[in-house]
Amino acid sequence: MAHTCAKQGAHLILASRDVDRLSKVSEECIRLGAASARVIAFDASVTDDCERLVEEAFPDGIDLLILNHAWSLWQHMDFGNPRANVDLVKALAATNYFGYVAIAQFALPRMTNVPGSKLLAVSSAASFVPIPSKTHAYSASKGAINNYFTALRSQLRIAGYRSPSVTLAFLGAINTEDFSVVVKDSLINKSTVSAESTG
């Protein structure tokens, strides 16, 4: 997405905890035609960081805000350790859900007065159908995004704001190392269940 915006000559703000990786993305964006590409370090699970990011990066207004950060932790539920199950869901929700909410809320005053501004919240197909095995916490956080930003879109219109538009994007499988492990594990579990069922 950053590369696509760069090719349109956009001024980009790239924010993440992984500044080293984003610095490489920033350099590539400049080569692709971005008018500028600034990197800012922040932690989406920390509300104060989300507020600081918006204030530092967007003093005037925001034309396009893309929320695309996510933390993936693939882990089975441990039915012998209920607290660990709760902590896992809370940890992923802090970044994947509450991070989206915080940035969006702090950004809205800088978007409602910009005609044609757009807010894009990136979700996942896993929010509808979780992959069997280890994605329950990740899928739950993405499902929360779907409902929140659908409600936000309606609330903005009810309040009389014409901007920003609010769009949800549902990404399918992305070929990453982590995802490959999850799929492999799911297939193994499915084979085991099938064998037990027919045996």
UniProtKB/TrEMBL annotation:
Q: Which Pfam families match?
A: adh_short (PF00106)
Establish whether keyword Protease is in the entry: no
Does the record bear NADP in its keywords?
Answer: yes
Ordered alphabetically, the record's keywords are:
NADP
- Its source organism is Jimgerdemannia flammicorona
Q: Quote the protein name from its UniProt record.
A: Uncharacterized protein
State the Gene Ontology terms under molecular function.
oxidoreductase activity
The signal peptide stretch is none
